[in-house]
Amino acid sequence: MAVVPTVQSDFQVEAAWTPAEIAELGESVSRAPSVHNSRPWTLTLHHRTAVLRENPAPLMNHDPQGRDRRISVGAALMNLVLGVRGLGWSAQVEVGATSDLVSAVVHAANPAELSPREAAWARAIPQRHSHREPFTGRPVSEPLREKIWDAASGTRCGGRWINSDAEAVAVARMLGSAANAFHANSDYTRELTGWVTPEGRRLQTESGGLRGLAAVGLTAMTTHLPDEHRLARLLREESVLLVGTRGDRAADHVRAGRAVERAWLEATSTGLSVSMMTQPLHLPEIRTGLAERLGTSMIPQVIMRFGYAAES
Ligand SMILES: Cc1cc2nc3c(=O)[nH]c(=O)nc-3n(C[C@H](O)[C@H](O)[C@H](O)COP(=O)(O)O)c2cc1C
Prior knowledge:
Layout: E1 4-5, E2 11-14, H1 19-30, E3 41-46, E4 49-54, H2 67-86, E5 92-98, E6 101-107, H3 116-124, H4 142-152, E7 157-161, H5 165-184, H6 186-193, H7 198-209, H8 228-237, E8 239-245, H9 250-269, E9 273-277, H10 284-294, E10 299-307
Parallel strand pairs: 2-3
Antiparallel strand pairs: 1-2, 3-4, 4-6, 5-6, 7-8, 8-10, 9-10
The structure holds flavin mononucleotide (FMN).
């Protein structure tokens, strides 16, 4: 089947959807969060079907197993589903994996109304962004935390809040040790220093200025790492959610990405600011250590922080 490329390199089109629908779906997908904003996917549209395929990516030291790529595809898939739903269709999703690369097919099978919750998530897509700066001290209310937790919950995946001082201390110790390991790994930091995209360079500059919890999720050569006491305090002051999955295969990473995007959009729709990190969770000992200390059988895939941004 011939594929006609358009001006966007991550976006290919093959007939049937109207041009306005194509533009809308492409826009929704391109606004998803992705590792280093690399958008490691290709979107192909034909008839009433949308196919999202993972692209191989070059971040060998940062993401050797492709976990982040697949989580990124999951987040983009969530936006694609919301886009299809927003056009008035039901969205049947099939996720598959071949030669280590995942792909997802979304069938717009039948006309179907958007639910109010989906509509709120869809409206939040253009507003969603990473907020890595510290939050104001205003706590996130319990009902809101409940809504975010609920949004992250799905088949074989879900969220786990960091709840107590003891948990914060244990998690701070793990995140601190992961950040120190990355800091000391010259191959790793060299790769980050060589970030080739303008966004990668922006992130690298930003990592040098980070002082809060986000610094342990964007550790490069110049990052100032907070000590463990401060990390533990921040983990208590901010609302921190671990998103995990029951399994650790390609489809689980896609599930984690969908869960993250739902939680992020839910939070954005209620005026909260968010950032996420996976960097510490690339180390298998941190994944198992966190699961053990938090007494969860889920495999930690993403750490998300929620709070209120200072008024600018
Ligand atoms: C799989 C994945 C991993 C990410 N890992 C990190 C991370 O470890 N630290 C961080 O600060 N941001 C991380 N991000 C956030 C991206 O850097 C961010 O989404 C991207 O730069 C686009 O910016 P935006 O979220 O403001 O649209 C990650 C995003 C994804 C989807």
